[in-house]
Amino acid sequence: MKQEDLQRLKDTGNCPRGNLRGVDLGGASLLEAVLRETDLSQANLRGALLRRAILVQANLREANLQEADLKGADLESADLYRADLFKAVLEDVDLQDANLDQPDLRKANLVKADMRGANLFRARMQGADLSEADLYRADLEKSDLRDANLYKTDLRESNLQGVNLQGANLQGADLEGANLFEADLTEANLEGLSLERTNLESAKFFKTIMPDGQTHTKK
To answer: I want to staple 186 with a disulfide (CB 3.0 to 4.6 A). Which of 64, 100, 166, 217 is the partner?
Structure first.
């Protein structure tokens, strides 16, 4: 079935509910491809063009998506467990309720991504651009967001327990009702934020730019 499904993809550009587990599609042009509920686990999609592709409920567990272009793709409820998305373009993608448990999202472009309710447990997101992304009620527990850009990011009621936000830019972000218990905010920029309903118990502040613009100097 795998070879038949691969041929179907090559012939039509679509393969909904297909079996493409472990296939090599590195650099492939899959613009607007319909891959709904398709098994792409452990597939090589490095550098692939997947703009506006339909990947709703697709299985992308441990897939290689390094530097892939998924701008505008629909990945709602997709499974991206331990997927490699290093430097991937995920601008304007729909990742609502997606499973992103332990993915590599370092330096990924997630500008204006819809990640409401997504699971991002232990995500590696160093240097990622999440400006204007929607992470309402997302679970980012123990994720690494060092030097990430969270400008105007919606983090309302999100779980940021134990998250590393060293050097992150949070200007304009909405943290209403967010849980930052034991989060590391060393050298993070919180200028202008309202933290009235944010749980900051045991959070670490050092050289942090506080909401009033003053720098927190005590460890």
So the answer is: 166
Bridge partners for 199 per DSSP: 179
DSSP designation for 216:
E
Architecture of domain 1-86: 3 Solenoid (2.160)
Per DSSP, which regions of the chain are E strands? 208-209, 215-216
Name the residue ranges covered by the structural domains of the chain.
Answer: 1-86, 100-218
Backbone dihedral angles phi then psi of residue 12, each to the nearest 5 degrees: -115, -15
- pLDDT, tens only, 30-67: 999 999 999 999 999 999 999 999 999 999 999 999 99
Whether 100-218 and 1-86 are alike in CATH topology: the answer is yes
% of the chain surpassing 90 pLDDT: 95
pLDDT for the residue 107: 98
Q: Which two tokens stand for residue 41?
A: 């686990």
Signed CA dihedral, 71, 87, 75, 181: sign only? negative
Q: Is 4 helix (H, G, I), strand (E, B) or coil?
A: helix
Fold type of domain 100-218: Pectate Lyase C-like (2.160.20)
CA proximity to 161, closest of 179, 137, 184, 136? 179
